Each structure stands twice: as C-alpha cells, then as structure tokens.
Amino acid sequence: MIESKAQEPDLACREFVEMVTAYLEGALDEQASLAVQSHLSHCPGCDVYLAQMLATIAAVGHVPVESLSSTAKADLTAAFRDFHMRAR
C-alpha cells in the first residue's frame, strides 16, 4: 500500500491529482483513501477530474502494450520519466 504524503485530513487539489491513480488502483492506505474521499465531497473540480479519469480509463485504459508502436512506447516512457524527475 502507498502511504499518503499528507498527514492532514484536507488535501490540496494538487495532492489529489498526484494521488488519484493510486486511489483508483486501491493502492492507498485507509487514511489516504479517506482524505481523497473527503476532498472529493467538497471539491467539484476534482470530482469532475475523477470522472474524466474514469471515462479515459473506460475508453482507452486497456490498450495492449504490444499494439503500441516503438515510437509511442518511447514517448510514453520518456513522459513518465520526465514527470517523475520534475516531481522530485
């Protein structure tokens, strides 16, 4: 399980966005999950963001890796690597 970075019950929208994938995968600890749910209950913008993420997953969430071109794989790998480097 991934533990929340935030120790306070209130999340900022940026923290929510950083945690949403782990939340959807069920990878957050109970405290972090409750913080996400609490944030969603009073933040209509993040509620819309979550709905958009769920719609995206439903539409393209199961694209087989082997169906991607080598260029697409390289671009995605670079994007994730760059994102994680900026987050540090």
What does this 3D model show about the protein?
- The chain has 88 residues and is mainly α.
- It has helices at residues 13-24, 30-42, 44-60, 70-87.
Give the end-to-end Cα distance, rounded to a whole number of Å. 20 Å
Number of strands: 0
Give the overall shape.
elongated
| Quaternary structure | single chain
> Which percent band covers the strand fraction?
under 5%
**Main structural class:** mainly alpha
String of helices and strands: HHHH
Helix content: 55-70%
Mean pLDDT: 83
> Uncertain regions: pLDDT < 50 for 5+ in a row?
1-9
Q: How does the major sheet shape up? A: none
Short description:
The protein is mostly helical.
Topology:
Blueprint: H1 13-24, H2 30-42, H3 44-60, H4 70-87
Give descriptors for this structure.
0% strand, disordered N terminus, mainly alpha, 4 helices, 88 residues
